[in-house]
Write a structure and sequence with these properties.
Layout: H1 3-12, E1 19-23, E2 43-48, H2 51-62, E3 68-72, E4 100-105, H3 114-127, E5 128-138, E6 159-160, E7 167-169, E8 179-181, H4 183-193, E9 195-201, E10 217-223
Parallel strand pairs: 1-2, 1-4, 2-3, 4-5
Antiparallel strand pairs: 5-10, 6-7, 7-8, 9-10
Helix pairs in contact: 3-4
């Protein structure tokens, strides 16, 4: 739970008084690391499609910490919300414009298809304050060197996603099970949303030489003034 606290403070300049939004918050796994850090007017909001996990976080954390809010996103997801009312590609975050200093997502964009990723980047930019930063974990295909080269067969991207150059998946029958983007593609999506790529931090998954930090690759983007 301390991992993302370290990332957000060191990479995103998260202050104790900052407002932070997590996409794909689950039951509050990473949010727990922020409990002792944020101070008023600092606050945390989390969005997730899994209603059971959100309700668990509301009961365990939100009920005791007024500065922490967990919101169920009624978005269709074949695994976690098969009866969801809204497609991820058109979902609007139920949050006001320019409300957050920092935004992050741990292992969310590794499961979102291109149109969904594009929409979530646009929505991220909308709710981010000018100069705010986002930290997203992704699988960058630039670091993929083929079958048998990763830490696990689960992290293989052998199938190009038709109609979307720079995108590949592990399983064509279930493309959202695991999806990877080229750096060029993810940069283009970010720029189209009004976000600027600041830094790429390689992950452990690809077994690439040199620096590796998180299990997945991390990208740091910001909203211009």
């Amino acid at each position: 739970m301390w991992e993302y606290l370290a990332y957000l403070t060191l990479l995103c300049d998260l202050r104790r008084e900052s407002s932070v939004l997590e996409l794909g918050c689950g039951h509050g796994r990473t949010a727990r690391g922020l409990l002792g850090y944020l101070r008023s007017p600092g606050r945390y909001s989390g969005l997730d499609v899994d209603r059971v996990r959100v309700e668990d976080a509301q009961a365990r954390i939100q009920s005791r910490q007024q500065a922490f809010q967990f919101i169920w996103a009624d978005v269709y997801n074949a695994h976690y919300n098969p009866c969801g009312s809204t497609p991820a590609a058109s979902y609007r975050f139920p949050l006001p414009d320019e409300a957050f200093d920092v935004l992050y997502a741990a292992s969310l964009f590794t499961h979102l298809l291109p149109d969904e990723t594009r929409n979530y980047f646009h929505e991220s930019r909308r709710v981010l304050k000018p100069g705010g930063k986002c930290l997203f974990s992704v699988f960058l295909l630039d670091h993929y060197r083929g079958p048998g080269t990763t830490v696990s067969p689960l992290y293989e991207f052998t199938h190009p996603f038709l109609g979307h150059p720079g995108v590949a998946v592990r399983d064509l029958a279930h493309p959202d099970a695991l999806i990877g983007y080229s750096l060029e593609k993810i940069t283009s999506i970010a720029e189209d949303a009004g976000l600027r790529l600041l830094r790429v931090i390689p992950g452990l998954w690809s077994e690439s030489p040199g620096l590796a930090v998180n299990e997945q690759d991390l990208i740091l983007v910001c909203r211009g003034e």
